Amino acid sequence: MSERKSPLKVIPSASEEQLVQALGDLLTRCSQEALARQDKFSVGLSGGSLIQLLTKALKSCNLKTANWVFFFCDERYVPLDDSDSTYGAYRAEWLTQLPSIQESQFVRADTSIPLDACAADYEAKVKSQVDRFDLLLLGMGPDGHTCSLFPEQPATLQETQRLVIPIRNSPKPPPERITFTLPLINNARNVAFVVTGGGKASVVKSVFVDLDKKFPAAWVNPTNGQLTLMVDAGAGKEIETLK
Ligand SMILES: O=C1O[C@H](COP(=O)(O)O)[C@@H](O)[C@H](O)[C@H]1O
């Protein structure tokens, strides 16, 4: 076990409705703080189950999002119109359900160039627009992966120079991806994991109670930022000591 650099805030929810509300509250607070400090609110998005929850939260809290800029904490190296594209999934949801968010607010990866160049190009895009992320929204798989940092590829957790790296042979398809690395993630002002479902209860305990470093999510430890864990009743059922 190792130490947390800042205390973990756990937000348990009894229902999806409550979790969506809590996510809306987090977005409200982080965006207000960011926009009081600067003219843009930078948000890093993850894929998977977060997409639907975030869409619901944004719909219900009705925030002014014109000055928000969306990046991707990881992206699958597939064409933008592929069903595996995280950007494509957000675009499909938000175009119809959140028409006030423009495509130009997404900073997306160029998956038409070679994988290494795609990662380097995305890092350059991040560096040119963001000093520290205001908010990173992370998911976690049942294997403890977060972003595209997988337990089978521990060398990715040792990266100290690059902020975005290419991933090959990902254990979860599709095999090629790009991902934020720990130096970028742990420099954020706010990092929030959003984890749902009883199938993830034991890994939630291993990561957030035991801080078991065999799981990449346990390496997320903001140096000077707030770490939050949002769980529904299923995912949170083994972490009574943290609530
Ligand atoms: O492949 C991915 O999986 C994780 C977790 O997804 P979930 O559906 O289990 O919530 C996601 O956070 C990541 O962005 C994605 O590329």
TrEMBL record:
Keywords: Hydrolase
Domain of life: Eukaryota
Ranges for domain Glucosamine/galactosamine-6-phosphate isomerase: 15-228
GO molecular function, one term: 6-phosphogluconolactonase activity
Matching Gene3D superfamilies: 3.40.50.1360
SUPFAM superfamilies linked to this entry: NagB/RpiA/CoA transferase-like
Enzyme class, first EC level, given as a word: hydrolase
EC assignment: 3.1.1.31
Pathway note: Carbohydrate degradation; pentose phosphate pathway; D-ribulose 5-phosphate from D-glucose 6-phosphate (oxidative stage): step 2/3
Catalytic activity: 6-phospho-D-glucono-1,5-lactone + H2O = 6-phospho-D-gluconate + H(+)
Biological-process GO terms, alphabetical: carbohydrate metabolic process; pentose-phosphate shunt, oxidative branch
Matching NCBIfam families: pgl (TIGR01198)
Family statement: Belongs to the glucosamine/galactosamine-6-phosphate isomerase family. 6-phosphogluconolactonase subfamily.
Cited function: Hydrolysis of 6-phosphogluconolactone to 6-phosphogluconate.
Protein's name according to its UniProt entry: 6-phosphogluconolactonase
